[in-house]
Specification:
The protein has 295 residues and is an alpha/beta fold. Strands 1-2-3-4-5-6-7-8 form an eight-stranded parallel β-barrel, surrounded by six helices.
């Protein structure tokens, strides 16, 4: 299922007391819509989902969907390592009216490939919403195999995967083995162009908070056959992409947004703010001119 080509994995703005800042959230949503985002993924890793309560997640889902309306799709992160809890959250998100859900590979309990298949199948069968799988072995420890993803793609409402596996051979195998309308999105900004080159649809991006229009332009160049221009843009944007992951995400991207005049507050423990050296490094690649370009 096509959700767009540049989707933003949205941060969750907090106020000075560490509470969700809904005024800042509304401003951030409008900024993202105006600057290249075809869709929003809410309550994922970049949204600090491990530190959000269930009630906070539902409130954020509803607020973002109400703010966006029908302008672009809103995909709610409802996955966890607890199948039953994920079913409940998914069903509540469906009642709110989101456009789809994203389900992360279960972390910590390390299920087998059969366990992964049954986990995702069971959640998908509990909802009528489109389901996007999310494979991220760097955080979940286990890798969902291409064979498991291909098998899951045969379930009617499992329609997409966010691929942060970092293995282009696996990426190509998934694209080759899934239905033509099953979409694959890069889960790493720096892998966007390589993933497109083997048939991927687009990217679920962190960097698009800051360089959304540029990410769109890069994808458009590639899809129009302007490969050299796309590659040149990729090389130009790479230092920014890299800088946004020099510390645990989403700490750098939140700092970058604050630098560029889009206040989103800080991060919740166990994440900590950037130190002075990290801030100086970030400022070198997120210059003041960037504010004018994206605001």
């Amino acid at each position: 299922m096509y959700f767009g080509q540049v989707l933003t994995a949205m941060v969750t703005p907090f106020n000075a007391n560490g509470e969700v800042d809904y005024e800042a959230t509304a401003a951030l949503v409008q900024h993202l819509i105006a600057n290249g985002s075809d869709g929003l993924v809410v309550g994922g890793t970049t949204g600090e989902s491990p530190t959000l309560t269930t009630e906070e997640k539902l409130q954020v889902f509803k607020f973002v969907k109400d703010t966006v309306g029908e302008q672009i799709p809103v995909i709610a992160g409802t996955g966890s390592n607890n199948t039953h809890a994920s079913i409940q959250l998914t069903q509540q998100a469906e009642e709110i009216g989101v456009d789809g859900v994203m389900l992360v590979t279960p972390y910590y309990n390390k299920p087998s490939q059969e366990g992964l298949f049954q986990h995702f199948k069971t959640i998908a069968q509990s909802t009528s919403l489109p389901v996007m799988l999310y494979n991220i072995p760097g955080r979940s420890v286990i890798n969902m195999s291409p064979e498991t993803i291909i098998a899951l793609s045969k379930i009617d409402n499992i329609v997409s995967v966010k691929d942060a596996g970092g293995n282009l051979d696996d990426t190509a195998a998934i694209i080759q083995g899934t239905p033509v309308d099953f979409t694959l999105y890069s889960g790493d900004d720096s892998m966007t162009l390589p993933v497109l080159s083997v048939g991927g649809t687009g990217v679920i991006s962190v960097a698009s908070h800051i360089i959304g229009n540029e990410m769109q332009a890069m994808v458009q160049h590639f899809k129009h056959g302007e490969v050299q221009q796309a590659a040149a843009m990729h090389r130009k944007l790479l230092p920014i992409m890299k800088a946004l992951f020099e510390a645990p995400s989403p700490t750098p991207v939140k700092a970058a947004l604050n630098i560029t005049g889009i206040p989103v507050g800080g991060v919740r423990l166990p994440l900590v703010p950037l130190n002075e050296t990290e801030m100086n490094t970030l400022r070198q690649v997120i210059p003041v001119r960037q504010t004018r370009a994206i605001s």
